[in-house]
């Protein structure tokens, strides 16, 4: 099979593309390089530079490369910024997904794995989020991801699209020595950039209703997330039963303050983070069960916090060495 990976030049997308290639699948990447990097694209993957808003490019790519399935990771992924730029967020994530689905329908591609997000849950009033937890997104980003799931659901009803959506939590670490998280808004790159510049990292919000006052998140390793995509893709290809939605969660939570402590240990840099105000759109706590994904997608959080930090730090330092 040939899988089209949208956003395959990004941090998560490049890991997914590499995992597919490692499993013997053919891969073509479409990415506009607005946040991805061409040097992140794994050797062996074909590359078409362009936007998922360009239906002609998508249709031509699918036909020329004889694409048989799509893993859709392209999108505008910044929850806080989406509150300031809602129209841009909806254009990229909703219009872009609709354009992609239209190209798939016209070219006869009938399988999609969709990169969704834990942000569809908002701030759930439960200790452990499951797929049955009500969705209540609190940012245009979260809303756009939920609408993307609805688009897949409705297209499945109309055309028989085989699909599943993977709701991510906090994806960290590195499984490729040349790939690291370049987001200007995610915790790990913010902390690493500050340390490499000789500065002091900051914690956004220390007054949340959590044990130490900082946000609690479900951190998962990017390689584990990538492997779940491969299993989901192959399950779709085989025609096996698959759920419409899976949480890729570890079932355990780690606070931002605990992350800071782990980074200090792994990097050997002693620092005391400064306190800053909360970021808009950040829930206090969100931790999810991964039981359903473990049952169907061989999902497991195989890397502990120290391994996540150490692999992320090693990849981030390499470009500067």
Characterize the structure shown.
The protein is α/β, with parallel strands linked by helices and 321 residues long. It folds into 2 domains: 200 residues, NAD(P)-binding Rossmann-like Domain (Rossmann fold, 3-Layer(aba) Sandwich); 103 residues, UDP-galactose 4-epimerase, domain 1, CATH 3.90.25.10. The chain is 40% helix and 17% strand. The protein has a 7-stranded parallel beta sheet with strand order 3-2-1-4-5-6-11, with helices on both faces. Helix 2 runs parallel beside helix 4, helix 4 packs parallel to helix 5 and helix 6 crosses helix 10. The longest helix has 22 residues. The protein starts with a strand and ends with a helix. The model has no long low-confidence stretch (mean pLDDT 95). Keywords: Carbohydrate metabolism, Isomerase, NAD. This is UDP-glucose 4-epimerase.
Instruction: Assign an overall shape.
Output: globular
Biggest β-sheet: strands ordered side by side in the sheet = 3-2-1-4-5-6-11
Task: Name the CATH homologous superfamily of the largest domain.
Answer: NAD(P)-binding Rossmann-like Domain
Summarize model confidence as the mean pLDDT: 95
SSE order in H/E notation? EHEEHEHHEHEEHEEEHEEHEEHH
EC number: 5.1.3.2
Protein name: UDP-glucose 4-epimerase
Pathway: Carbohydrate metabolism; galactose metabolism
Organism: Leifsonella bigeumensis
């Amino acid at each position: 099979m040939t899988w089209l990976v949208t956003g395959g030049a990004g941090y998560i997308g490049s890991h997914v593309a590499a995992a597919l290639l490692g499993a013997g699948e053919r891969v073509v990447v479409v990415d506009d390089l607005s946040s991805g990097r061409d040097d992140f694209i794994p050797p062996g993957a074909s590359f078409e530079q362009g936007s998922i808003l360009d239906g002609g490019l998508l249709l031509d790519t699918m036909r020329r490369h004889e694409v048989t399935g799509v893993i859709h990771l392209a999108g505008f992924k910044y929850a806080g910024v989406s509150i300031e730029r809602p129209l841009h967020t909806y254009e990229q994530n909703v219009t872009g997904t609709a354009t992609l689905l239209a190209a798939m329908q016209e070219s006869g591609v009938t399988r999609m794995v969709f990169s969704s997000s834990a942000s569809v849950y908002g701030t759930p009033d439960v200790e452990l989020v499951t797929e049955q937890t009500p969705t209540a997104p609190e940012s245009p980003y979260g809303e756009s991801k939920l609408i993307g799931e609805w688009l897949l659901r409705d297209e499945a009803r109309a055309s028989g699209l085989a699909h599943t959506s993977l709701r991510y939590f906090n994806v960290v670490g590195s499984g490729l020595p040349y790939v690291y998280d370049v987001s200007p808004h995610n915790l790990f790159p913010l902390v690493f950039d500050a340390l490499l510049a000789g500065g002091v990292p900051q914690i956004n919000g220390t007054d949340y209703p959590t044990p130490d006052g900082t946000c609690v998140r479900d951190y998962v390793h990017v390689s584990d997330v990538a492997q779940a995509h491969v299993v989901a893709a192959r399950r779709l290809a085989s025609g096996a039963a698959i759920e419409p939605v899976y949480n890729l969660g570890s079932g355990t939570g780690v606070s931002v303050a605990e992350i800071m402590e782990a980074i200090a240990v792994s990097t050997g840099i002693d620092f005391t983070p400064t306190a800053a105000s909360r970021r808009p759109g950040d829930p206090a706590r969100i931790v999810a069960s991964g039981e359903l994904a473990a049952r169907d997608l061989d999902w497991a959080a195989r890397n502990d916090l120290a391994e996540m930090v150490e692999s992320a730090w090693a990849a981030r330092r390499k470009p500067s060495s």
